[in-house]
Structures
1.
Amino acid sequence: MQNKNFTINKQLNDQLIAHLNNLQDRYSKILPIRIDIHYAKDDEFNTDIETTKKEIMYFLYQAMQFELDIVGYAVVMEFNQNEHIHFHSVFYVNGQKRQKYYPIYVALERAWYELTKGYLYDCQRNNYHINGLRVINHHDDEAFRSVCYMLSYLAKTEQKSFFKECYSDCLFLSKVPPPSHRGKPRTLGLNKFLISSRI
């Protein structure tokens, strides 16, 4: 399932969904959190790709170190109409340990502000046509499709013209540890039979 309002880059979309599949192999329940990440409007570095890359990578490193049960992230860099850089992101939380996103959002908002004086936008509060924001597990096909729809927005080509030679250059994905193989083996869920071009 893809967002039909935008042109979706297949390679970027494939990477995002493969990453989600890898996370599902490792964690039985995942809570996705959609957040937009912005610089302050008067920030002198909000058009500098190298500086913003360093800052977003440090921020993501911090997010994984906090005791928030964040197990992964997918982030893309874009430019708005004023050529200012912003990021669209999905943070993945261990759904076995947490079911509420807001305390995690507040902690991330504080960390980004302390790093850049910038701000976050809470996409959870938007009334999206499709809700991809609940805890998903291996057998929840509807939730998986909803997250794929949400990820397709990150894979849109709009506002990524600087990266059109290689859209993957604007993508930041967390590393996913291999499955632990502890406990009862899981049967294949819907995600194992889907590739992004068919969603």
Note: The CA atoms of residues 74 and 173 lie 5 Å apart.
2.
Amino acid sequence: MSLILPAADTPVPASPDIVAIEAPDAVPGPVTTYSEIPVAEIDATRLAALRAAGLRLKLRTGGVRAEMFPSEDALARALWAAVRGGLAFKLTAGLHDPIRHRDPVTGFEHHGFLNVLLATARALQGYDIERTLADSDGERVAAGVAGIDDVLAKAVRHHFVSFGTCSIDEPVDGLLRYGLLPEDPR
């Protein structure tokens, strides 16, 4: 279970099921805490302060308005800063599909969680990642992800810890569509 707190001084119930906390400031204790910083405000200094405080980074990648979706360039800068700074991060909002796409209902461009995973791997290898984040060719992105070896996968997992989604079915369906799950786990 993960808790989202409005402030660091909010009482946290004692429970072995709580494995992560999201708060605007540091929360004392042994539970992993994530702090959300707007993508446009991420820089090496802010990330160093998070790391020094023992916090992880939460990146917002979507929402109910178009301006809540960061551009590929802005997200790439944030991912690069996190990777260079050795910081773990999670992503929230807008990542229902594995591949970058335009939502037919809202018209918003959505980042794909596989694009982010592959961009994190490429950042670790020193490659340009803006094009990876912008790539809407699902077969190409899936092939890139499938080509990540165990050593690189471990390094990616150190940084890209998780992503939030309102749907379990959409991400699973996407992974099945691109052959990245051997069978339907549902």
Note: Residues 79 and 101 are 19 Å apart (CA to CA).
